[in-house]
């Protein structure tokens, strides 16, 4: 029985995952409100479905956070389950960091063997920046996990020649787009090249599958943005950090080209092109909401 157990489970991997759990989770319960800009959004999203769907930054639902919704939806669900605490909004990122360690092992093992897979998982577990970002409520840890999941699906689909698994890989990248917009697309050149070189089918089927996968990618990527942009402006919050009150403009502007050129402003200023009065109003709103959330965490009724 013991031999069967140890043959099915890689004990060193279990130890590495436990190490990752310790590094990612230890003492996070002392965090009170971490990144208050994002915690403010989670607090507002807990108020009602309108704020939840639009990722509203304030309780009144007048302006959105400057990122797409998926990570904040997960953080809000965690806060609804465990209560709004610093650790409850960090928890999804900490778990994602642990998941990335496992995925790194799974990705490396088929091609390079168990030893290389263990070393890769260990490197992922103890890399300082990976640990640091997994101990915050910033988006990056969950983004990395999602993109590694997409990579695993692509490898699996190519290896087994499963068309739908390949399409699923691109669909997951579309979900990642709804975490941090164009930054999720940075892996696509490698995806396309690997697919074209490794998928053992004739060119007609290759192009057909790739076209379908790309269509799914774009539909999932843009679904939330298109829904929000088609809703009348007086029935939804202002899109934070955009110039034109458009999620698509936010994706390709403040969270797209501006990330490459460095032409960015602070949260809510639309890269410096919005009216100064609007900028000040949004900044004041953020300060007021952050004050409210800090009070809720520090002085909530027991």
Question: How would you summarize what this structure contains?
Answer:
By secondary structure, the chain is mostly helical. The protein contains 14 helices and no strands. It is flat.
Would you kindly provide a written description of the structure presented here, covering whatever features stand out?
The chain is mostly helical and 302 residues long. It has one domain. The protein is built from 14 helices and no strands. It is flat and about 55 Å long. The termini are far apart. Mean pLDDT is 85; it is low at 266-281.
- Mean pLDDT, nearest integer? 85
Spans where pLDDT lies below 50 across 5 or more residues: 266-281
First-last Cα distance: 48 Å
Quickly count the domains.
1
What portion of residues is helical? over 70%
Number of helices: 14
Radius of gyration: 21 Å
Please identify the structural class as seen in this structure.
mainly alpha
Q: Could you say which overall geometry the principal axes of the C-alpha atoms support?
A: flat
Order of helices and strands: HHHHHHHHHHHHHH
Oligomerization status of the protein chains = single chain
Strand content: under 5%
Main pleated-sheet profile: none
- Strand elements, count: 0
Pfam family, one: PMT_2
Domain Glycosyltransferase RgtA/B/C/D-like: 66-224
Protein name: 4-amino-4-deoxy-L-arabinose transferase
GO molecular function: pentosyltransferase activity
């Amino acid at each position: 029985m013991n031999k069967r157990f140890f043959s099915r489970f890689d004990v060193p991997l279990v130890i590495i995952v436990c190490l990752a759990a310790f590094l990612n989770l230890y003492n996070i319960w002392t965090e009170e409100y971490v990144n208050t800009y994002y915690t403010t959004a989670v607090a507002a999203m807990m108020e009602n479905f309108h704020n939840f769907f639009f990722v509203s930054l304030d309780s009144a639902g007048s302006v959105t956070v400057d990122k797409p919704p998926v990570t904040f939806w997960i953080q809000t669900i965690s806060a609804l389950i465990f209560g709004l605490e610093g650790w409850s909004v960090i928890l999804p990122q900490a778990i994602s960091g642990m998941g990335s360690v496992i995925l790194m092992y799974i990705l490396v093992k088929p091609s390079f063997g168990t030893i290389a897979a263990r070393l890769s998982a260990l490197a992922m577990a103890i890399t300082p920046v990976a640990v640091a970002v997994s101990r915050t409520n910033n988006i990056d840890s969950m983004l990395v996990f999602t993109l590694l999941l997409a990579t695993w699906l692509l490898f699996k689909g190519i290896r087994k020649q499963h068309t739908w698994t390949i399409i699923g890989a691109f669909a997951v990248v579309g979900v990642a787009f709804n975490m941090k917009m164009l930054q999720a697309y940075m892996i696509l050149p490698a995806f396309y090249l690997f697919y074209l070189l490794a998928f053992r089918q004739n060119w007609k089927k290759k192009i057909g599958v790739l076209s379908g996968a790309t269509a799914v990618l774009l539909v999932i990527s843009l679904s939330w943005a298109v829904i929000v942009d088609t809703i009348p402006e007086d029935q939804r919050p202002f899109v934070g950090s955009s110039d034109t009150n458009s999620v698509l403009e936010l994706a390709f502007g403040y969270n797209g080209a501006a990330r490459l050129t460095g032409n960015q402003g602070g949260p809510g200023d639309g890269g410096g092109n919005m009216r100064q009065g609007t900028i000040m109003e949004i900044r004041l709103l953020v300060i007021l909401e952050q004050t409210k959330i800090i009070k809720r965490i520090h002085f909530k009724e027991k």
